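Sanity check

After download, print the first record. It should look like this:
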Amino acid sequence: MSTIISVLIEFLNSINKIIWKFIIFLSKFIKVDDVITSNKPTDEKYKQFKVDDSPLIEPFVKMEHKDYKKLIKENNIKPINRRNGNSPIPDNIKCPCCGAPKDYLYDNTGKQTQFECKVCHRIFSNNPRKQKYVVLKCPHCEHNLVLRKQRTDYDVYVCKNNKCRYYLNNLATLTLSDKKKFEENPTLFKMHYIYRKFHIDLPTLTKDYRDFVKQPVDLSKIYSSDYVLGLCLTYHVNYGLSYRQTSSILKDIHEVSISYKTVENYCKSVSPTIQALLEFYPYELSDTIAADETYIKILGKTAYIFFYFDAIKKIVTSYRVFDKRDSLSSIKAAYSTLSKYDKLPDSLKVISDGNPIYNVAVQYWCQNGLPFELYQVIGLTNLDETSKEYRSQKQIIERFNRTLKYYYRPKGGFSSLDNANNYMVLFATYNNFLRPNKALNYETPVVLEELKDIPNMPNKWLELIRLACKYAEPYSE
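Expected structure tokens:
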């Protein structure tokens, strides 16, 4: 057997020598560096999400001194020669500026949502969401903005003028390699001015942030004592036990026999009451907020929690669960934090990851009178000065996400979005008022005088419920 192995080793060595001789021969005709680097992934430069300045908004002026017939005669304008011979534009569409009929109208989008008049060169929309009495213009060249996309929460307008100062400046900053990439794929770079016009109802949004939890059971009608209610909250929230585990420990240790469904109803019923304390307590927040989103499971599907967290005071200011990770969710989560300030500090800054939905939230609230600065920490290494300066604040909320996962894991998910939000209210309350924090010398983020003389946790929960009733008046407004 050993003889056969030695023969095989000698044969393989001879084959290896032949292969190396063949490689050396080929290296005379082929560059080895090209062969090695050909399989390396290319470092593509993708366009960054950037919020541009606000556009020029001018009142719509109808040309009353001239009509389209005089303009056509004076400028010898001919009807549009359509390729298919049929006009896709409805007969009732006319230019609101000069009154030109469909024969002189271009369909800019091909979807009958935006038109351009050949007679007066006015761009207008047939979309009822768009304001009909104003004109949006580029602040750099005063060229009319063109509707590019229609999102669920906003419309995207872009300046198509290739002689725009903004476009030319961006074009001049490109390196030779970037210019080559831009010629091959222009979508990798943001070159033109872009404006996002939101159509989110502000009063509905500001009311929605505090009305997303429901109360299935009236706390005044529960059969168990108040102390049992405090025990349910302590085991379920403070120690992360499931409803079934809480029911078992109440029976095994405290000799209280209640079903896990009763424990669930008790905990869910506390959420709407105690949320008043969580939302309307007069926090003394700092000017440094960390933001991040993490996911949980609802009936096996992914849902997202948008956390906003005071990086200095360790106070949770936003904790809501959404079924989508989109711009509207980010806008609502940001308002939950902004509303907790009596007056926004001039130096208010939010640190987040590179998700562009945070940029959309900044743009929306800046347009609605609640401005703040956003600093995005990109990637896992410090590739820029912003990431280097604010990564420590970003890591704080990442650690808080891990804390949530520790308490959430025994539950194995939630049965509905309402149940998930009810639990998040309790968890945020526990973090802000009951959970000692090592970074705060083992003090709670919010120190309540009413809780100092209470010796045990169940009675502290009951005291929080009583305090919450004092802050519940805004709900009735």
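If your output differs, re-run the checksum step. Summary of this record's structure: The two ends are 92 Å apart (CA to CA).
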